[in-house]
Structures are given as structure tokens and as C-alpha cells.
């Protein structure tokens, strides 16, 4: 127990490597120890490893609110809003005077459509019980990365206001515009905790996704609509880039357009196939993703965009036709993003799983 308490202190202090080493040395056996170990792993942003421990704690002591809280926090980081809300609600029922339980329920409900009023009530109750410190979510990222994202854009805007600029300044402007997106990519794909290699991180995520979405249920079908969104948006962006020269009356040569559509489309399909299989497993790819209604809708929209570009390239184009394609690509980009956010916020309403011990 002392090792786990020290590990939690180190995790809160963002000394992740040392904290993880202590967790790996500990051998939790009781429900209290399992809950504490799970909470430390949640603080380290390792919900895939925390969730099995939290569920074991619930199985050992179903009436201990700490196990349900650990399940709620772990599933919240996994973006399983329905299970997180169910586990947090159970924790509130067992310990109505614990601020952490109300906090977990409030943040989970805030991600669900129609749960805003109850979420505000739970967050207010958590603040009444524990003050502002009680509202801190475990494993919350530092806000400094926002500064790293905004600062280069601000530098670029200031330099753009300067009249005559030397070549070195022009190079700096290009770099300042590219850096935010590189940082954003690193923030998304880099393992969010110390002590894991890339293969271990990917294997953890795939195992968690296969457990969650491999059965082909409602959660899996909705997830397919979220997974296909980036690839559909990539097609929309490509259509916009191909349409921009046409707006100015100087469309790209047919050979360039055909190559971009065929090669770019083939590369996107190959990347989507490999990426989905890597992150979600073969079963999800073949039994859920490929036959998904959402995927078919996105494929139809992508085909319309690609076909529209080819028709305008080889056919007789009236004035304003490229503008129609340009607007349609932008509209579809926005619709794809909004539909993905809607599917994520709605989430499944499945009850919390409580497997038997062993």
C-alpha cells in the first residue's frame, strides 16, 4: 500500500517514470489496493492498464465506491462515456458525500447529449463538497501545449505585418506556420506516459479496442462512423485543393488531376485499411468497419467529390461550376466533422461490466 501511495504522489507531481516503476513493483491484492493502483494508472493516462484492475476491485468489493470511481475515470479517458457515467453514478449512490464521485459523474454526463443540466448539478455538488481542487480530473494534460501551438502562429502573424522582409524572415514564417501542426500531430500520436515503447502502446490500444468494439454491437457501429471521418475529410481537402486553381480560371492539367485522384485515392484507401487494422484489429475492420452504413455514406460522398473533379476537368465548364464543387467540398468537410462529434458525444448506453473475479 505504501508503494502505491507514493506512486500516486509521484504521478500527481508528473514524475511519471518513477511512479510507473513503483506501480509495477506493487502487487495489489485487495479491492482497496486494486482501486488505488488503477487510480495511479489513470493519473499516468494509462486507462488500458487501469481498467482491468478497477474491474477486479469492483468484483471483489461491489459496495466499495472507490472501485466504481476508478472504472469511471478509466472509461472516461477511453471516451466510453456511457460506461463512465454508469460507473460514476454507482459511485455516487454508494458515497453521496464524496466529491470525486460527483466530479466523475458530472464530467461524464457533460459528454452525453442531453446531460448538460445534470452534469452542471453534479459538478456544483462536487465543488460544494471539496472545493475547486475537487474538480481536477485525474491525468489532465498541462495547458502549456496550447502556448506552444499558439505562439508560432502569433509570430507568423506579426512577421506578416512587416513590409519588406529578408529571406531568413520568410523562412522563419514558413517554419512558424508548420510547427503548430507538427506539435499537434505529436500531441495526438505520442504515447502519453513514460515507460512504454511504441509497439507496447499500440498493442495496448488495440487490445482495449478489440475488447470494446470487436463484438459488432451498437458501440462498434457508432465507432466506425468516428473512425472513417479523418479519411473522408482528407478527400474533401484534396477536392478543395484541386478546385482552387479552377476558381481562378486556370485549372490544373488533366494529367495532374487524374494522377492526384487515382494515386491519392489509392494511398488513402491503403492507409485507412492498414491504420484501422492496426488500431482496432482485423475483426473490427472486416466485420464492423467495411460493412458499416456510415462508411458507405462517406464513400459515396468521396466518390461524388472525386467524380466531380474529373468531370469538371474533362468536360465543358460553365462559369461558377468550380465554385459549386469548392463549396460542396467545404460543406462535406464540416458535416463529416460534426457527425463524428455527434456520434462521440451520444455514446453507448450499455451498463458497466463487472466480470467475476478470476
What labels would you give this structure?
0% strand; 17 helices; mainly alpha; 358 residues; disordered C terminus
Describe the 3D structure.
The chain is mostly helical. It has helices spanning 2-12, 16-25, 31-43, 47-60, 65-77, 81-94, 99-109, 116-130, 144-160, 167-189, 198-213, 218-227, 229-247, 254-280, 282-289, 293-314, 321-346. Helix 3 packs antiparallel against helix 4 (47-60), helix 3 packs parallel to helix 5 (65-77) and helix 13 packs antiparallel against helix 14. The two termini are 22 Å apart. The model is unreliable at 188-195 and 349-358 (pLDDT under 50).
Instruction: Report the biggest beta sheet as strand number plus sense, adding barrel if it closes.
Output: none
Strand content: under 5%
Mean pLDDT metric: 81
In angstroms, what is the radius of gyration?
24 Å
Distance between the termini: 22 Å
H/E topology pattern: HHHHHHHHHHHHHHHHH
Q: What topology emerges from the helices and strands here?
A:
Elements: H1 2-12, H2 16-25, H3 31-43, H4 47-60, H5 65-77, H6 81-94, H7 99-109, H8 116-130, H9 144-160, H10 167-189, H11 198-213, H12 218-227, H13 229-247, H14 254-280, H15 282-289, H16 293-314, H17 321-346
Helix pairs in contact: 1-2, 1-3, 3-4, 3-5, 4-5, 5-6, 5-7, 6-7, 7-8, 9-10, 12-17, 13-14, 13-16, 13-17, 14-15, 14-16, 16-17
